[in-house]
Design brief:
The protein is α+β, with helices and mostly antiparallel strands. It is built from 9 helices and 8 strands. The radius of gyration is 20 Å and the shape is globular.
């Protein structure tokens, strides 16, 4: 690695550490002062990190925060034993209680993105796929609970094209799908059965942070174990985990990126 490249890597690491030390957010001038890096250089590096969704930038306060997408990659190293570690603990407890794989998703229109998952204790289960990954909203329990929190006009505007291109015919059209979201809101959770994959089932609940419902927690497993009759049984611990994660995110102020990106 050339000296200039090594210097850029070091500056990037210093900037990430500086931002990670301020879960409430930190402005450009303060970042430059604490890191000892010229303000113009800070701005260039931070702009790239924000564009790649490693950081989030509040458009009103102009304060940077570490994104949960980045934390999902580094496994909480920047965050120490903080928020991301606690999130993993909630998912581990959920996986242990339900004996199924547990995960955490974010809505990134027109799909959902899995940003964390913990395998269940069962010896025989589904093959875990890489994280992060995107999945269709129509065939996932997380997609259903996240869309149920949106206004019908928003669903049509942001997801109508995706629905027309990829939604299965058995859903009966976009209007029928939107109507079915009323039941999801009433129950407080959603399920998917033989939808994303044949022989796979999942249950999800919305994670509410303030007035927003951008995240969801889920469990998933094979249909021979996660049977239809078991859905209601496992829904309660899933909803409990969703409340815990909502409280955690509300306290820490960690934000996810609001546009899809390859992490």
């Amino acid at each position: 690695m050339a000296p200039s490249e090594a210097g850029l890597v070091r500056r990037t690491i210093w900037l990430l550490r500086t931002v990670a030390a301020h879960p409430e957010g930190v402005g450009l001038s303060e970042i430059a002062r604490e890191s000892g890096i010229p303000k113009a250089t800070c701005y260039r590096v931070l702009t790239v990190l924000e564009r790649e969704s490693w950081l989030t930038l509040d458009p009103v306060t102009r304060r940077y925060r570490v994104s949960l997408g980045l934390l999902s990659i580094v496994g909480g190293l920047l965050d120490g034993g903080g928020a991301y570690g606690h999130m993993r603990d909630v998912l581990r407890d959920l996986a242990k209680e339900t004996k199924e794989t547990a995960g955490f998703d974010v809505l990134l229109a027109p799909k959902v993105m899995v940003v964390a998952q913990v395998p269940g204790p069962s010896l025989i289960g589904q093959t875990l796929k890489p994280v992060p990954r995107t999945q269709p909203v129509w065939a996932t329990s997380t997609g259903k609970v996240l869309l149920s929190a949106l206004e019908p006009e928003t669903v049509r505007a942001e997801f109508g094209e995706e629905f027309d291109a990829h939604a299965p015919e058995q859903l009966g059209g976009l209007d029928a799908f939107i109507d079915s979201m009323a039941e999801v809101r009433t129950r407080g959770y959603a399920s998917a059965y033989d939808e994303l994959e044949l022989g796979a089932a999942s249950v999800a609940a919305p994670v509410r942070v303030g007035q927003a419902t951008t995240y969801a927690v889920w469990i998933g497993g094979p249909t021979y174990r996660l049977t239809r009759s078991r859905i209601d049984e496992v829904a309660e611990p899933v909803m409990k985990a969703a409340r815990q994660l909502g409280d955690l995110l509300s306290v820490t102020g960690i934000e996810l990126p609001t546009t899809a990106a390859e992490f």
